[in-house]
Design goal:
It is built from seven helices and twelve strands. The protein is of the alpha+beta class.
Length: 274
């Protein structure tokens, strides 16, 4: 194995410098004594009740409605646009990323990943173009799963993702479903924060706890000669997560096994949006 070639393409709206990219430990796993971009990143799984969620800021000029027959090509194109600058696919060649997203969309639409649920929603701009999608399927063991959530760049920070979530939760509640699951790659800080603000709660997961431990240990080492106070705080967090990880491992590691979001979590809501 060789180290990945640095790729400065836009990530979450801007280009990262080499040192910034190297400081994304969520994207790394320790292989043969060196950190590599692959295998796939760690996913943080979250759960939310289907109680109502109030959209904070109305988003004029768009409609949220159920997915319609014949929209497969539009859904694929929306996902490809939404994830073009996402850290979820950072470093992927464009053709590989677009092809993987097209295959994912095709598998979702033919229910190969689980039955497509009626709560699936799309956001439509004037003129009929899709600007956001929230794809929901049945998880064989866990219940409803948000398989993908994405908003095209031009429509971010306008409440589209929140409106999609609100409509899907209303549909779930009407159908008598009590909870829905979703997830984020740990490196996707926007998606992690978006889920937290909207009432999703993380599940206990030994792999995630171990990733947090590695992250804080990495930061403690990186900052040791630069900012000793910050390094010490990261060292304490690493010790705390090490204890959490050990406890979860003794208890089986994962409270609820959610069978989704492989090979990568697909959640690209609006950056900083409501």
């Amino acid at each position: 194995m060789v180290r990945p070639v640095f790729d400065p393409r836009p990530c979450q709206g801007r280009c990262l410098e080499r040192d910034e990219f190297r400081a994304l430990p969520w994207r790394y796993e320790l292989v043969d004594g060196a950190f590599r971009v692959r295998p796939a990143p760690i996913v943080r799984t979250v759960r939310r009740s289907t109680g109502p969620f109030q959209v904070g800021v109305p988003c004029p000029g768009r409609e949220v409605r159920p997915m319609q027959a014949g929209e497969g090509a539009s859904i694929t194109a929306t996902l490809q646009s939404a994830f073009a600058d996402s850290v979820d696919y950072y470093g992927w060649p464009r053709a590989e990323r677009q092809g993987e997203l097209a295959a994912f969309a095709a598998a979702f639409l033919r229910s190969a990943r689980g039955a497509v649920l009626p709560a699936t929603r799309v956001a439509v701009a004037p003129g009929g173009a899709l600007v956001g999608v929230l794809l929901v399927r049945e998880g064989p063991s866990s219940g409803p799963v948000v398989d993908a959530l994405g908003v095209v760049p031009a429509w971010r920070r306008r409440g589209v993702a929140s409106a999609l979530l609100s409509a899907a939760l209303a549909a779930f509640s009407s159908a008598g479903r009590v909870a829905v699951y979703s997830g984020s790659v740990l490196a996707n800080h926007v998606s992690v924060a978006w889920h937290d603000v909207r009432g999703f709660e993380p599940l206990d997961d030994a792999l995630v706890a171990a990733a947090y431990e590695r992250h804080h240990a990495w930061e403690a080492d990186r900052l040791a000669g630069i900012a000793p106070g910050a390094s010490a705080r990261h060292a304490r967090e690493a010790a705390r997560w090490r204890s959490v990880s050990a406890g979860l491992a003794r208890g089986g590691g994962l409270v609820v096994a959610v069978d989704h979001l492989a090979p990568a979590a697909r959640s690209a809501p609006e950056a900083g949006g409501a």
